[in-house]
Amino acid sequence: MRIIVCENYEEMSKVGARIFAAQMTLKPDSILGLATGSTPVGLYRELIRMNSAGEIDFAPITTFNLDEYYPISPDNDQSYRYFMNENLFDHVNIDKARTHVPSGLAEDPEAEGKAYDAAIAAAGGIDIQLLGIGVNGHIAFNEPDEELIVGTHVTGLTDSTIEANSRFFASRDEVPTRALTMGMASILGAKKIVLLANGVKKHDAVMKLLDNTITTQWPATLLKVHPDVTLICDKAAYEG
Ligand code: GLP
């Protein structure tokens, strides 16, 4: 695992964005794996800036997002589809038809999961996957458990995640208790992975990533089997 420790969130976002820009320059029709949460917002802001400055082109780009609440409508301002439109897609020259987020309205979520993995495979696989990390070590919505699921699937959210994500909702009761998420194997199938972590609250999560154990009780530790992971964090997350 490559580790880049940055002074602060702003620098971290710029370093992450430069890696995505380099990928888009080397392979203009890249398949990008994208993430939600507060962590990647700065990186998206930087990509928007580079796009308006004519430095990067989103026209030939295809994207797949990690996860979506279930059930939820894409018009709901708490949905991850809404978040992606607001924080990236509406501000760059991307063709929305090439942007994929699991459907929070799918009647058959199991079938939606299978179709999502099939669409990623048909596109040729993800070239570079952006990840955040939950305070409990979750990746996307792969929550700590005795077993983890291979492909995209519906899952229940842990109390810790509902609590952490309730800051975006009017009340804790409004946080959906289920989600559709890419599985750990779908995520580990990406050619490159960039994981962002900032703030002292992510220190434990970062430490577990850097020890020499792998456990499904801390899903992020599975990233240790991947040959091309770059961890970008700020000093607070790294040093505690
Ligand atoms: C959510 C998302 C994850 C994200 C995590 C961390 O639960 N499903 O993909 O990594 O939260 O969020 P934040 O970046 O806001 O700390």
Describe this structure in words.
- By secondary structure, the chain is an alpha/beta fold.
- It has one domain: Rossmann fold.
- Helix content is 32%, strand content 18%.
- The chain contains 8 helices and 10 strands.
- A 7-stranded parallel β-sheet has the order 1-10-9-6-2-3-5, with helices on both faces. The protein has a 3-stranded antiparallel β-sheet with strand order 4-8-7.
- Helix 1 packs across helix 2.
- The longest helix is centred in the first third of the chain and has 18 residues.
- The model has no long low-confidence stretch (mean pLDDT 97).
- It binds 2-amino-2-deoxy-6-O-phosphono-alpha-D-glucopyranose.
From the structure above, extract its key features.
single chain; alpha/beta; Rossmann fold; seven-stranded parallel sheet; 8 helices; globular; binds 2-amino-2-deoxy-6-O-phosphono-alpha-D-glucopyranose
CATH topology type: Rossmann fold
Number of helices: 8
Please report the total strand number as a whole number.
Answer: 10
The biggest beta sheet is recorded as: 7 strands, parallel
The rounded Rg comes to 17 Å
The CATH architecture comes to 3-Layer(aba) Sandwich
Termini separation comes to 19 Å
| Cofactors, ions, other ligands | 2-amino-2-deoxy-6-O-phosphono-alpha-D-glucopyranose
- Report the order of strands and helices: EHEHEEHEHEEHEHEHEH
The CATH class is Alpha Beta
Percent strand equals: 15-25%
Strand order of the largest sheet: 1-10-9-6-2-3-5
Instruction: Name the average pLDDT.
Output: 97
| Low-pLDDT ranges | none
* Total domain units: 1
- What oligomeric state is this? single chain
Helix-strand makeup class: alpha/beta
The portion of residues assigned to helices is 25-40%
- Specify the overall morphology: globular
